[in-house]
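As noted in the main text, all predictions were made from sequence alone. Below is one such record, for Glycerophosphodiester phosphodiesterase domain containing 2.
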Amino acid sequence: MADPPGCCRPCSTCLLCLYSCQCVHTCPLSGFQCDCSWFFFLFCVFLFTLVWLYIAIIILNDFHNFNEFIFKQQKLWLDWSLVLLIATAVLITYSAALLVLALCLQLCGQPLKLHWLHKILLIITALVVAAAFTGLGIKWAEEWKSARISLQATGPFLHIGIVGGMTLLAWPLASVIYRTHNTGLKVFLLLAYSAVMIALYLAPLGITSPCIMEENQLPPKPALIAVEHRATLAPENTLMSLRKAVDCDVQVFETDVMVSADGVPFLMHDEKLTRTTNVQTVFPERAALNSTAFNWTDLQQLNAGSWFLERRPFSSVQSLSHRDRVQATRQKIPSLEQVLDAAKESNISIMFDLRPENHSDYQSFVNATLEVILHSGIPLQQVLWLPDGFREQVKQQVPGIQQIYGRKRHQDENETLLHVNLPYQDMSSDEIKQYRQDNISVNLYVVNQPWLFSVLWCSGVSSVTTNACQVLKEMKRPIWLLPSSTYLMIWLVVDCVSFLMILWAFLLMK
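Prediction:
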């Protein structure tokens, strides 16, 4: 059958037809309502993907946890954050490009003839992002707390961006309203859009951030603590990493301690040696054993640095000098005694956890560790004790050690907490301020991103544990700091400009 006069035939090979069809209302699959449905779906997929991009950027602060999880499960070490960002960038670019084309068609009064391939790809995009959100909620639920904290750093700017985006949407919306003859649809679109804009205009009433303050109210910059099982400038838990931490102006070197089979405390984070040493080459038949099953003589035969150059757990490895690379390949597992001597020379404190806590000989581990501390001659105020096991015994034997607690204080408890060490997700800004007023030192871990460091700085945290000290030490002030009066003025100006542009859009499109 011949096509009706004046009607274009969509090419079967085109992906997005740029020509209008004069008889579009005769086809139920390409009619106006179908166009509106696919445009709405495209808009929702774009927003869904945009939110995921925001979440992906936020979880970069803690992505080393995911890398370690994959290694434990698959024995494969890779910086999966690159995979995440590349995949997310592809999805957001694709949906954004389609949305821009769709908006242009709407403004030109043309129908959206979305090719079936685009429809399938949009559905796949929505399913992939939904799966990512589901996986995050099941396996990494604490990151939702990180997202809430991020709103304190980005809330004012997200508000401006969302208001701007919804304001630009007024042009295609006005075009749709003036083109349709369905009064009910017109009323619904106008009411829905008006409700969203009113909510956005009033949103700053619910936006709070510790960085909305006067310049003279800013607390001192938090001290930096280098976390050694995530060292980015040197192989973790080595003497090289301690020296790099000293060069980075950190005040505390945070690490993990285990005790060998013959009673020598040494630095190691993992229960097994496979990730950070060449134990599979030197002792292949014993590679699956726990770290504490090896004696000190065996441990000293292992190389603890070559893996860092081979696997490149951080992008910063590529920037290491030739001298640093040579030094990294020569690293051995250090004993606690060696580390204490180096800390004493550098006048840096050391904070450590004693692992594994569930070991049957844990009390002997505590005794061996205390003995090394006492014989090292390091000033006891430079030793920060994290383990909860046998804490009272430690207080009696070595009363000068600083006790660091991995919990919040309880109401009406007799024991006075002077130092607490917690994940940054577990402390609100109000709690940090209250602890600061009560002279309780608060250290939060692990803080790598400048936006997070800025929020905690404004909140008044005492120190942060980080593996990005080379970045945070360069920060002279938080990323942004706004007096409340300035923020109020920005809020009012943005809302007024948005309202006037929406009025102009509807008058112009009419």
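The chain has 19 helices and eleven strands. Residues 223-472 form a domain with the TIM Barrel fold (CATH 3.20.20.190). These features were considered when defining construct boundaries for the mutagenesis experiments described in Section 2.9.
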